[in-house]
User: What shape does this take?
Amino acid sequence: MTTSSPSQFRDLADATILSTRFISFSGLFIVLGCCVYFKSFVVLYSVFTFPGMHEFISMANLTSATTVGTISIMLAYIYNIALVASISLVVSHNLYNFPNEQAELVFQEDLYNCTFVYLLCQIPLFLFHHCTSTAALATHTPAHAPTFKSLGLVALGSLWCPGLTFFSPLIAARTGISFLAFLFTVVGLQDNWQLIFGKLFGKHRPFPYLSPKKSIEGYVGGTIMTVLSIWFMKKYFAYDWVLFSIIVVVLGILGDLSMSYVKRALSLKDTGDVLPGVGGLLDRMDSAYLILPATYWLMLRSIDSESVQL
Assistant: This one.
């Protein structure tokens, strides 16, 4: 049986990364609290998506020195701005008192329409890039256009960061901002519990290439504490807490590993420097990206089940 030595406790107490994570988590909690108190949800969305989009563009090393690079960056931010505008317009029509079915319908329509138009604009951009790259190779002239890898990463980042994060206003419109704050808190705590248990008891590394610091012991300890937290708070929401726990734990781990894969593929240690000392904003938010749409699906599923029972 693996036991923790006194030195492991000292390492945990002295670990700089633990203190910086605590500070970043406290900042997240303050932002969430302000959004709940002031009902300023557009601030919450903007705080996460614009810096996250910046980190994706930086990781892709995409610049505006070329026409294709400029258009790609513009499309990414226009997509982000369009989603922010959706939240702002809802607030301007006095639909900010969540839960609100009318606001949810507006969010649904805007998300689907904006994403469809964004993808529709990406297709000719990739075709143009392919044609110009082929022409440059045929004439043996040097091409300074960005690679498919960098363009693809920015396109993926737009869907991954602003796109998936936009499920948060959908969740808030259905259940209220308080539940959304609880969701972000649980996800943030899960990541920190994994760190603590991994520091104390971590011996077995299941993903040495993707995430060498993650351990089975950390995953187990984080899972237990996360499930206990959700079980303790289950009386405050009307959804299947067991299925909700599975979504948070499994998709949280998958989200973290998927971002680790992107970093390893690009030979990067951190996603960016928006949150220095903790690996970047995307590193702190990667667990939530897959959880948000799955949680919204759980809510729709619960409504459908109630309708069938009636």
